[in-house]
Amino acid sequence: MFAVSQFQPNDSSQGWDGRFKGQEVAPGVYVYYAVVRFIDGESVVFRGDVTVFR
Asked: Which of 8, 29, 47, 52 could be bridged to 33 by S-S, CB 3.0 to 4.6 A?
């Protein structure tokens, strides 16, 4: 997971460089699906996709 905060919009020096553990990530569509269960018993589903291209 890549995260950054406190940056100016369109500042490419603050963006992800396309690498994971020093290796370039293969181009493709990556999907995610997560069920978050809260201590009050409520569950929320987060799902979507991220496209990596060069």
From this structure: 47
CA distance 54 to 37: 36
Task: Please determine, for residue 46, whether its predicted confidence score (pLDDT) is greater than 90.
Answer: yes
pLDDT for res 2: 84
CB 45 within 8 A of CB 35: yes
Residue type, position 10, single letter: N
Question: Could you please report the per-residue DSSP string of 1-54?
Answer: -----S--TT-GGGS--SEETTEEPPSEEEEEEEEEE-TTS-EEEEEEEEEE--
